[in-house]
Amino acid sequence: MIQRKKKNWFYMLFIWHGSVLPQLLPRLSLLLVFSMIVVHFNGTFYDYKIPLNPAPFTLFGLAIALFLGFRNNASYDRYWEGRKLWGALVIDSRSLLRQALSLTTYDSKSPQIREFTSILIAFAYALKHQLRHTNADIDLEKRLPSEVFERSKSIGFKPTFLQYELANWVKKAKLEGKIDAIGQMAMDANLNQLSAIVGGCERIHSTPLPYTYGVLLHRTVYLYCFFLPFGLVDSLGWLTPIITVFIAYTFVAFETIADELEEPFGTEPNDLPINAMCLTIETTLSEMIGEPVPSPPQLEGYILD
Amino acid sequence: MIQRKKKNWFYMLFIWHGSVLPQLLPRLSLLLVFSMIVVHFNGTFYDYKIPLNPAPFTLFGLAIALFLGFRNNASYDRYWEGRKLWGALVIDSRSLLRQALSLTTYDSKSPQIREFTSILIAFAYALKHQLRHTNADIDLEKRLPSEVFERSKSIGFKPTFLQYELANWVKKAKLEGKIDAIGQMAMDANLNQLSAIVGGCERIHSTPLPYTYGVLLHRTVYLYCFFLPFGLVDSLGWLTPIITVFIAYTFVAFETIADELEEPFGTEPNDLPINAMCLTIETTLSEMIGEPVPSPPQLEGYILD
Amino acid sequence: MIQRKKKNWFYMLFIWHGSVLPQLLPRLSLLLVFSMIVVHFNGTFYDYKIPLNPAPFTLFGLAIALFLGFRNNASYDRYWEGRKLWGALVIDSRSLLRQALSLTTYDSKSPQIREFTSILIAFAYALKHQLRHTNADIDLEKRLPSEVFERSKSIGFKPTFLQYELANWVKKAKLEGKIDAIGQMAMDANLNQLSAIVGGCERIHSTPLPYTYGVLLHRTVYLYCFFLPFGLVDSLGWLTPIITVFIAYTFVAFETIADELEEPFGTEPNDLPINAMCLTIETTLSEMIGEPVPSPPQLEGYILD
Amino acid sequence: MIQRKKKNWFYMLFIWHGSVLPQLLPRLSLLLVFSMIVVHFNGTFYDYKIPLNPAPFTLFGLAIALFLGFRNNASYDRYWEGRKLWGALVIDSRSLLRQALSLTTYDSKSPQIREFTSILIAFAYALKHQLRHTNADIDLEKRLPSEVFERSKSIGFKPTFLQYELANWVKKAKLEGKIDAIGQMAMDANLNQLSAIVGGCERIHSTPLPYTYGVLLHRTVYLYCFFLPFGLVDSLGWLTPIITVFIAYTFVAFETIADELEEPFGTEPNDLPINAMCLTIETTLSEMIGEPVPSPPQLEGYILD
Amino acid sequence: MIQRKKKNWFYMLFIWHGSVLPQLLPRLSLLLVFSMIVVHFNGTFYDYKIPLNPAPFTLFGLAIALFLGFRNNASYDRYWEGRKLWGALVIDSRSLLRQALSLTTYDSKSPQIREFTSILIAFAYALKHQLRHTNADIDLEKRLPSEVFERSKSIGFKPTFLQYELANWVKKAKLEGKIDAIGQMAMDANLNQLSAIVGGCERIHSTPLPYTYGVLLHRTVYLYCFFLPFGLVDSLGWLTPIITVFIAYTFVAFETIADELEEPFGTEPNDLPINAMCLTIETTLSEMIGEPVPSPPQLEGYILD
User: Fold this and answer.
1) How do beta strands B44-45 and B48-49 pair?
2) What's chain D's average pLDDT?
3) Which of residues 235-264 of A touch C (CB under 8 A)?
4) Rounded CA separation D130/D136 (Å)
5) Which residues of A are less than 8 Å from B102 in CB distance?
6) Does the keyword section mention tRNA-binding (chains A, B, C, D, E) (predicted)?
7) For chain B, which chains pass the contact test of at least 3 CB pairs under 8 Å?
8) How far apart are CA D170 and CA B235, in angstroms?
9) B121: burial class by Cβ within 10 Å (0-12, 13-18, 19+)?
10) Above 0.90 for ipTM, yes or no?
11) Which helix (H) or strand (E) holds E181?
12) Is A190 on the interface with C (CB under 8 A)?
């Protein structure tokens, strides 16, 4: 579903990659102009030579390497854990439906199975809206049995409510003799797993990296770039602005990506396509019970976020 | 519940972030004055030139990079594991209540379910007070059935006591025929999980990083900053104090954050909001059994620690 | 099955290792010629001296170390996780067949066991074709019972379909009294594991590293190599082209390997031999039920991808 | 139980931390005297100038950063895994006793429960003595039923023997109808966990880091420190001994801590307080069954190792 | 069983550690002679001065740090995972025997228990021979019941065959009413674990690090060492050969250890003592059922590999 980007070594050098460069352009232009001024006055200021040389930049550089490396790893770990959790949601949804089909004696076309499937699908959408602080009602109304939807409207934390509905479905099947105690426990284990997924997403969402890290890193990077032309002008001369902007570009872009990945459930360009993943769940589960899958046009608009 | 901080690149350069800077200010001011004195006497001391240059600072720098990188990663891992454990507590509390509701034949409005819920909620508060060495009695009295509270008063390690009460509740339900052996085992697995959470928190709390690491790092960082003006004064001149203080600020602030994160259950600004998490547990569990949720005013005061 | 490559320290210095060098050769030749031109004009350009020295290369170098280190670790983790998942598939297939043999009362020569085995084997091939976007029909037709194969033809996501067939097989065995509820649950746990494997492979396959990382790294590496001769020519003279090409070779080759490992399920030289692993599964499972193993000639052609 | 050390930034600069400095003092003094001699002869040796400058120290430094960073991370991982295993032992002991109390129909004051508790407590002490190569008999005699103790005396590997006694206890309870098959399996899962803890401790204890790593690192660090005064004397003059000793102190101390942490079950100052953890287990388990807890004086002597 | 090596700081400086140094000696001697020649001609070649200085070595050094750090971490992870897997085999063998003793109603002296034990022990030896490509027959004949041994002779992949024998043993016990369904499932879970161990060892064994990594690293390290004397001769003079050989020694030795650890199941000096671990399993299991443990003389010859 997700298309791989072109990877030609020459092409990649000059591609205008839309996600980070545009927002950096004004800042980099500012820095370019500033570097040119520094070069023109040759590092002097009101007849006073700015006594900077490359030496302290190695010291700065160490601090930046420390911060940026740590920040980036921590952010990417959050991003990748978020991806794993949504992957686990796809896996777990399939497992639960498989169990509903093979551990109970319900027919795969029975209304009970359809109800279970619809709640499972709604669960994914409810989690998405929860994480993006958007209104889940439109998505839930389309999918949930109307009786369940009505009750869901007044609930603040919808994923937990829907999970409880799934548990109740299993309890009812047990009372009606459609599943035995062992089967119930096997499904209960997967419901536990569902709890763990919701909890993991909440954790990533509600606990950002300590803010102080971000502030410290940000200042170090930007002040580094601001002082850079003073340090390079003596040895590089007219090449200073080009080299300065290029070094600044890599550091600042790196910081910006790390910042986007930190909160992977948003709608920024480098965030996770959780909308597409909801659709994947809907498609696979519908296919498993022989329901019509969502139509392509509906799919189109979703694919990128 | 937790609000994201503003992230504007320009704004972040000058924000006065309250958590670390204030405690560092006196030390940084001291260093500023000291650097100015060094510049004024131009690196001489009683007519004797201090023969320092940037060369040994690269060697120092390596040692600092080694220590600070290691220390920071280890501290952040502790912080993030602490967060995971409390996240698991939220997850596990919900799972246990879901099991009490769907694996037993108790009505969701029965006194037994209310008792189980109240012990689960009290468990979270008891763990919080345990980790912060504060008195749990006020919080437990409000939530526990008075008979259980009375017995809890003489107990040293309250979370284990309350967990044992939960196990007894399940045992009683089994003896009364409200849950079968399989259901009991499924709940027992989640009680095991509860033990693992308590044990994990205790582990982080009772085993700090080896103290020697902290002392070594501290000395390296502070002596580095103290020698820095001597090393920079020859090449940077009057810029020395500014650059010195800025480099010192990044290193010292980094060490300070690492120190705060090391023990994530305290009440320092960068510690985990475990009080808010207790309230989250209370709110979700109350919602699940249709009890009134804690009122907003009560919530207000808690949100930050 | 996989042969270890020769490891003589002298031999390894001059081996022509076919996987990466050939594709890099044109670019490195280009760089060699370019460096020679730079040396010949001694870093001047239209009578204007290019004022580059080694100093800014340390700064560049830091950025490269940051990116390349991170990119390489992330790619290798993906590669190794992919390997673990396929290893888990081998393990899980064996476990499921062992359970079918020891937890049910079917005879090991019965048609039911053969059917179960054939679906398990087909499952691995279906996953391979899914990950490589190739047509699974030839492999499935050879292995699946024709009735199952017919139904599989219209299915988009075949591994899930086949897994569901396995679950149905267990359900049927339960209804026929060949396995008890406890045995069914034990097999269900391994079917959950199968879901996790499919989901993990999908995750790695469908979520590449954020594209922006690759672009940034690529640019930093190539521009670094392009500027390198200017920076070295003053101090190294006629040695510049050799040193330049050698440094460029290590960085560019490192980036290229990282790029190949990022998507481990393809057919590039450093990708995983998942075809060979399908064959391993087929061979072991056939041996376990006393079926003839696939003939060596068939094996030959597969061994490398 | 474990008291946090004082953390005042000024105090920490001058604290005499007893665990590492004393053993390093003779070596550092030696280096100080050696550096002074080097300064006095100004880097000459029999009228021959030692031609060292800071340049090769950056190369050395890279090697040290590589080794020391790796060594330290690997050692700390071993230390922390050891801590996790003992934490898991505390958790698992509590869980097993909770299960013995809530899954069986034994009264909490019955001799069977007391016997089970005493074996669990003895298990922790047996593991401690196993890991420290000390004689377990005094500790076991005090705690075990005399009949079990007699049989334990001839056994080489006592933790496995005691674990088997626990399994037998459960088997007997099953045969007497005090626990059902499901309960037995739940306890068996925790006995598996106990095996994993013993095995993990054995693994860390019996497989040190490859010895060659230690030797290589040791040589690199000490030769680096020995050459350092030659490299610094030209630029630093009379400051050389101070700077040399300080840099040496950080590197050598870092290596020493890593060495201590590598084997975390010993009795060196930075090792794990496993004696205190045995006592924690004894205290909590005794409290759970209403037995008198070990008296404070006994506790006092144990707290530090 | 494994004795700790002596750790005296002075002693460690001069110890002749046999595992790596001997194989490196010829290469290092070659480099020493080569460096002396370079010094003698003072870096000139046919009257032409080789224009190398320390500057490009920092760039080289970055590449080496990148490769060597990554390679070493990846190799050590493989080594340590291999160790964990064999540790898990020890743990799992004990757990399976404990279950055979406590979950079945067989007497601990019955022939069935002895048969089960012998297959478990043979399993470890079969895995060892599988990983070392040696003939398992001598070890298996001594331990297996002759009927099982005969059938094992024609099997290619013996560990899986023996594991299947264990599963059959449990199935037979179930059919004879010696174990219930729940007990069978508990043992089945540990048999799954056994599969995971075999699969993990196979994975490490059959998938080395991508070969290209090794080649690239090897070249970078050796060419670095070859160029080193040219870069140092101007500043270090007659000290060049000593410093060169020492730096080369650390880098080359580091690469050599990483190479040995990559495949931990071989018989090189730094590989895992899996023969000793087979013996540990044999000893502990024999002790558990009261069989005579293998005699010391037999033990002697095994202890080192």
Assistant:
1) antiparallel
2) 84
3) 235-239, 243, 246-247, 250-251, 253-254, 257, 261
4) 8
5) 164, 167-168, 170-171, 188
6) no
7) A, D
8) 77
9) buried
10) no
11) helix E181-206
12) yes
Residues 21-50 of E with CB under 8 A from D: none
Tell me the chain C residues in contact with residue A284 when contact means C-beta distances shorter than 8 Å: 157, 160
Residue C165 half-sphere exposure, CB side, CA atoms within 13 Å? Answer: 23
Report B:98-117 residues touching A (Cβ under 8 A). 98-99, 101-103
Is the pLDDT assigned to residue E67 strictly greater than 60? yes
Task: State the nearest Cα–Cα gap between A16 and chain B, in angstroms.
Answer: 22
Query: What is the pLDDT, as a whole number, of residue C303?
Result: 40
Ramachandran area for residue C42 (φ above 0: left; ψ -120 to 50: alpha; else beta): left
Cβ–Cβ < 8 Å for D243, D182: no
In this complex, the residue of B199, B220, B259 whose CB is nearest that of residue D90 is B199
Closest C-alpha to C250, from E213, A82, B25: E213
pLDDT at E251: 86
Which chains have 3 or more CB–CB distances shorter than 8 Å to chain E? C, D
Mean pLDDT over residues B28-54, rounded? 77
Bridge partners (DSSP) of residue B44 are B49
List the Cα angle E127/E133/E136 in 5-degree steps: 55
CA–CA gap between residue B256 and residue D9 (Å, rounded): 10
With vertex at residue C155, the alpha carbon angle to CA C151 and CA C160, rounded to the nearest 5 degrees, is 100
Phi, psi of B18, rounded to the nearest 5 degrees: -65, -15
Q: Which amino acid is at D65?
A: A
Q: What is the mean pLDDT of chain B?
A: 84
Tell if the CB–CB gap between C218 and A1 is shorter than 8 Å.
no
CB under 8 Å to E144, separation ≥6 — which residues? E118, E119, E122, E152
Closest-CA residue to B113 (of B295, B290, B292): B290
Q: Which amino acid is at C15?
A: I
Q: B6-15 b/e with 16+ CB inside 10 Å = b? A: eeebeebeeb
Q: Does residue C7 belong to the interface with chain E, where contact is any CB pair within 8 Å?
A: yes
Mean pLDDT of E48-65: 70
Contact A238 C192 (CB under 8 A): no
In this prediction, residue A47 carries a pLDDT of: 61
Q: Which helix (H) or strand (E) holds C227?
A: helix C211-236
pLDDT recorded at residue C300:
39
**pLDDT bracket for residue C53 (50, 70, 90):** low
Cα end-to-end span (Å), chain D:
13
Are D210 and E257 within 8 A, CB to CB?
yes
Among A182, A268, A291, the residue to mutate for chain C (most C Cβ within 10 A): A182
In angstroms, rounded to a whole number, what is the distance separating the alpha carbons of residues A127 and A281? Answer: 13
DSSP E208: P
Residue C85's φ and ψ, nearest 5 degrees, are: -65, -45
Residues 6+ apart with CB under 8 A from E154: none
Whether E160 and C57 lie within 8 Å, measured CB to CB: no
Structure tokens belonging to residue A203: 């954790």
Distance between D241 CA and the closest CA of chain B, angstroms: 13
**Length of chain D (residues):** 305
Low-confidence ranges of chain A (pLDDT < 50): 1-4, 296-304
Kindly tell me the burial class for residue C226, based on how many C-beta atoms sit within 10 Å of its own C-beta (0-12, 13-18, 19 or more). middle
In D207-226, the residues whose Cβ lies within 8 Å of chain B are none
Token pair for B83: 């967060």
B39-53, B274-288, C208-222: least confidently modelled range: B39-53
pLDDT digits (tens, 9 = 90+) for B24-40: 888 889 999 999 988 88
Helix or strand (DSSP H, E) at A44:
strand A44-45
Distance from CA of B210 to the nearest CA of D (A): 6
